[in-house]
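Hi everyone,

Forwarding the result from last night's run.
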Amino acid sequence: MAVYGGDLLHLDELARRFNAEAASVEALRSRISSNLESAAWTGPAADRFRQRWVAEFVPALRRLESSLAEHAAVVAARRRAIEAATT
C-alpha cells in the first residue's frame, strides 16, 4: 500500500521557492530584452541573436516561468489536502 504525504512546512517553502524562481525568470527575460533593445550592436550576428531571442528564448523562458508558477499552485493545493486529511 502506498503512503502519501509531506512535511507541511517544506511544502510551503517549495511553493514559495517555485513562485520566487518564476519571478526571477520573468525578471531575467525582462532585463535581457531591455538590454538587447538598448544595445549598440549591429550586424548579422546581432540580427541572428535578436531573432532567436524573440523566436526561441523568450517563449522558452515564458514556458519555464509559467510551469514554475503552475507547479507552485499544485504544491500548495497538495499541501492543503495533506493538512485537511491529517487534522
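The mean pLDDT is 96.

Cheers,
N.
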